[in-house]
Amino acid sequence: MDTRTRFAVSAAALTLGLLAGCGDDADAPAGPAAGSPAPQATGEPWYDEVAPASPGGTTGGTGSPCPVPVSFPLADGWTAKAIEPPKGELAELVGEAFTKRGGTTVRCEVDGRSAGGGFLRIWAADSPTVTPRVALEGFAAGAGETVAGAQFRDVRAGGFDATEMTWIATNPLVEEESRNWALAVQSAGQTLVFAVNEGLITERTDVLPAYRLAVRGLAKGE
Fold first, then answer.
1. How far apart are CA 218 and CA 158, in angstroms?
2. Which of 1, 86, 104, 191 has a CA that sits 20 to 30 A from residue 156's CA?
């Protein structure tokens, strides 16, 4: 990895860390992992053979670090943190670059670095009427990256009908490709996007287990 790439990765991780609030639900009892229990499409691009992680808690709902109208299980060792809009000098430096993306606003981040994983981020569509597929299309295109090989499928995610998307994104600054996965559901008048991706320092086996656990265990939040 060259110096420019290391700097870009470190800067992004640091900024998101600064934006993240405190607290997590890691000690809460885990909910059941619902949804489709068996692989449907092994290998590229879905990798359904990657099993869900072991649960270590739940989050979601009013008053949680992830204030969205659903609840979902957390992978063991992963912690949920609210992400607040930047203020003051930080807001001037980064603006909406890390909190807004393609018609969505980030609501929380599930951090798995201490467990050897990456990040799962949950975004809410700014328009309450946008469909899951349209929300996913806007989200994928909203990072200023080149999007290629997009595929969609309708799935059952816990107690919800959902749409899932996978695509390859190329960052024009570092000329690196990454495989992305995202799933969108509608609950209580909101369209929510759950998103993970491979990166320079994370592989699919680092992020997909926690993502699978979360989306297969989705339930209505309180």
1. 5
2. 104
